[in-house]
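Protein modeling request. Please complete all fields; requests missing the sequence field cannot be processed.
Requester role: graduate student
Desired output: 3D structure, token encoding
Chains: 1
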Amino acid sequence: MSLSQLSEQLSAENLSFDDICQLILSAVEYTSRKEKMPFPYNDIDACEWIDQLGGLGSENFTALMNHAKSDEETPEGEGEEKKSL
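Delivered output (85 residues):
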């Protein structure tokens, strides 16, 4: 999926619950694999995370989705501090 396709999916109001769970899992998996750590999570974990945020209509969930969308819109490397060698 391209970044523009992801943006369309995030802005679509017809996201299914499964789409949302898969989006969250993908983000967590990306971070785990980037850090070369195992990825032991599944869709049940994603559902529990959503519940812990307060559910789909919660302020915390909305903030998470808005954060995901803003990260998608930021060009790679922009906003990150330069790493020293």
